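Whether sequence alone determines local backbone shape is best considered at the level of individual chains. When preparing material for the folding task, we compiled for one chain both its residues and its backbone structure tokens. The sequence in question and its structure tokens are set out directly beneath this paragraph.
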Amino acid sequence: MRGVYKAFGENTVLRGIDLDVHRHQVVVLIGASGSGKSTLLKTANLLEQIDDGQIFLQGEDISDPRVDVDKTRARIGVVFQQFNLFPHLTVLDNVTLANRKVHKMPKDQAEQIATDLLARIGLGDKLKDYPDRLSGGQQQRVAIVRAIASKPELLLLDEITSALDPQLVGEVLDLVTELKADGSTMVMATHEMSFARKAADLVVFLKGGVLVEQGPPEQVFGDPQHPETREFLARVHTVA
């Protein structure tokens, strides 16, 4: 991202964001509600059109108005805090849908990929179940598997644990840790500071749409350079 601005009416939500995300890197966005984290992720996936600046994916300017939005989104996986599974489709059909319809993959190949991934996260016996038969943690894990089944170049995760009961948060974060070990490239907004400290390669602190501070977790959490960062971390009780 280079000089990215985004406003909704009179409310400027992103104010000149400059951010580099490297391949196989996990970038974690932290900050209070309303700091711009979700909007940043939505602009990265072209769900929101930016007002100024540029966004590049593998060197291609995807913020150019002439870009094929659907083709670009097909390269990016997204998981939101609400699971957004299709209630009328089984777990297997939810996971295979994009590969079959968007990427034109043969059904048996798409189902093999989905079956392997679901078995790996302990949901191999839920293929024929509908989402309302699953716990919140199970639904969110299915949503993540759906996002990674097409091997996206970039995975965006927006507060994926905030709608979960506390006892289910761990199982979802364990899956994200596995994806990190597999070399996925991720940008993740979260309120889970202990997880950010453990999983991030780069921590980015946003306040009022401004990128205030960024650095490795040991620096941002252990020795924050800016008063705003120190104040935020003191408020969430995670200063080292």
About this structure: The longest strand covers residues 2-8.
